[in-house]
Write a structure and sequence with these properties.
With 464 residues, the chain is of the alpha+beta class. The chain has helices at residues 2-51, 55-79, 87-90, 99-107, 129-139, 170-179, 198-211, 216-224, 269-285, 314-323, 326-333, 340-347, 393-407, 422-429, and strands spanning 114-124, 143-151, 155-165, 183-189, 228-232, 242-244, 247-251, 257-261, 293-297, 303-308, 353-359, 365-374, 377-384, 412-418, 435-440, 443-449. It has three domains: 112-194, ACT domain (Alpha-Beta Plaits), CATH 3.30.70.260; 198-285, no CATH class; 293-456, Gcn5-related N-acetyltransferase (GNAT) (Aminopeptidase, 3-Layer(aba) Sandwich), CATH 3.40.630. Helices cover 43% and strands 24% of the residues.
Length: 464
């Protein structure tokens, strides 16, 4: 069979070569005949001009005809320039603009208002399934800005950042995806900060986690969007890591359990692998706190330093608690404190949040402020030694903690105290942010929405 196929191919090639040679011979014959015809025509014209009585007249008439033709073509080109058609030419007689005309109008800069959406849908793990979804979105003039795929055993979960017309409702966007074959559709408004490719985002979050152990919960929240995060002390050893639908559990190296929940969107194995990689990085690097500090000047001439606290500050923190009055401790811990060691082991651990310490020039701690991650927000707590109260330290520390929260992408902070703690209430009001108050059984929860006060908050480590 191979020999017959080879013989057949060789015969075919020889026939094709003979046809090519015949075609070339005919083309050369036609070209030669055209040359002879041109020579004969030139000889005839020469004889008419040279030997004829009207030769000069014929030449003058030919020149005038050529000049007239050139002038007419120039006038015609000036009257009807060869440029792209205008908008009037693109519009149909009824006045409605066609799809191509609308695209040209959009390219000219007259674009309709658009909004960003974060979209996730499940599609069949089959060729063409993603193309059908993209086609359905394109029919609604939805532009796909970025896309990532999460493969599952029986399907694929595709996540998009899309730019859609502002007039397109959420239900219409979901209906378009369903028409393209998607199901389990989830949509949420996005902003410009999400226009980052996933590998670059993961690397940036890993860098922040490597520099500061307190950044791990924040990095996970930014990686997975609106996910609630809770940390359970001592439960990491008894709970294995894994994903169960809308809940992801990650044991931490210090024995705690980190639990992420996202009610409207289940986690995928790809997301679990990314989260576990960040936890493993945190485990390898161990406890770490960045060495940052700022100076605080007071009219009395006292030079104070505010910095990040570490577990090594426990002895100085216990001594400061001993100098505080029972009333100050009650306002801070909502009751008497008999065992400060147990509280401080948790508060000074960088994996639970960020703690600011204020110390004098002699290294004596006079104030502690805590920013602890909780669900989608963060709790702030403050303790100032009695001798240093009413000097503006509380306001300064609350402003710095609010700035740190915004820097970490947390937009709400809250404080829990007694309803009689007028000092903390006044301090929270100095944030110039909208406040919510909730009182229950004598306990007051003050929530500050920081987005509207972002421009009024100074940098967290600015000297003041």
């Amino acid at each position: 069979m191979e020999k017959m196929a080879y013989t057949h191919g060789r015969v075919g090639n020889e026939q094709q070569q003979r046809r090519s040679r015949g075609h070339r011979w005919r083309r050369e014959t036609v070209e030669l005949a055209a040359v002879f015809a041109a020579v004969a025509a030139a000889d005839l014209v020469a004889n008419v001009v040279v030997h004829g009585h009207d030769g000069p007249v014929l030449l003058a008439a030919s020149a005038a005809a050529m000049l007239g033709t050139a002038l007419f073509r120039g006038w015609l080109a000036h009257r009807h320039p060869h440029g792209p058609p205008g908008a009037d030419a693109l519009a149909p007689p009824g006045g409605a603009m066609t799809g191509d005309a609308a695209d040209r109008d959009a390219m000219s800069g007259e674009q309709e208002p658009t909004v960003l959406w974060r979209l996730r849908t499940s599609v069949a793990d089959a060729p063409g399934s993603l193309a059908r979804v993209c086609t359905a979105l394109a029919e609604r003039r939805v532009n796909i800005v970025s896309m990532q795929a999460h493969p599952l055993p029986d399907c694929t979960v595709d996540e998009f950042i899309v730019r859609a017309p502002k007039a397109l409702a959420r239900t219409e966007l979901a209906a378009a995806v369903a028409a393209g074959g998607g199901w389990d559709i989830w949509t949420d408004r996005a902003d410009a900060h999400e226009l980052v490719d996933v590998p670059r985002q993961v690397l940036a979050l890993a860098t922040r986690t490597a520099l500061d152990a307190a950044e791990l919960p924040v990095a996970l929240r930014q990686l997975f969007g609106r996910a609630a995060i809770r940390q359970f002390p001592g439960r990491g050893a008894e709970t294995p890591a894994g994903v169960e639908g809308h809940v992801m559990r990650l044991p931490l190296p210090n024995g705690d359990l980190l639990e992420l929940s996202r009610p409207n969107l289940p986690f995928t194995p790809t997301e679990f692998a990314r989260a576990r990689a960040l936890v493993e990085l945190d485990t390898v690097l161990g406890p770490r706190v960045p060495q940052v500090e700022a100076r605080i000047s007071h009219p009395e001439g006292d030079e104070l330093t505010v910095r990040r606290a570490t577990p090594e500050d426990k002895a100085a923190a216990v001594a400061m608690h001993a100098r505080c009055s029972p009333e100050s401790l009650r306002r801070r811990y909502h009751g008497p404190v008999r065992d400060a060691d147990r509280y401080l082991d948790h508060l000074l651990d960088p994996r639970h949040g960020q703690t600011l310490a204020v110390e004098t020039a002699h290294g004596r701690l006079v104030a502690l402020a805590h920013l602890m991650w909780d669900d989608e927000g963060a709790e702030i707590a403050l303790l100032v030694e009695d001798a240093w109260q009413r000097r503006g330290l509380g306001v300064d520390l609350v402003r710095r903690m609010a700035a740190l929260a915004l820097e970490a992408g947390v937009r709400t902070v809250y404080a829990v105290t007694t309803s009689s703690n007028t000092g903390l209430i006044s301090t929270m009001r100095r944030l110039s942010a909208p406040l919510d108050y909730q009182v229950e059984d004598g306990t007051l929860v003050i929530t500050a929405h920081l987005a509207e006060a972002a421009e009024k908050l100074p940098a967290p480590w600015a000297a003041r």
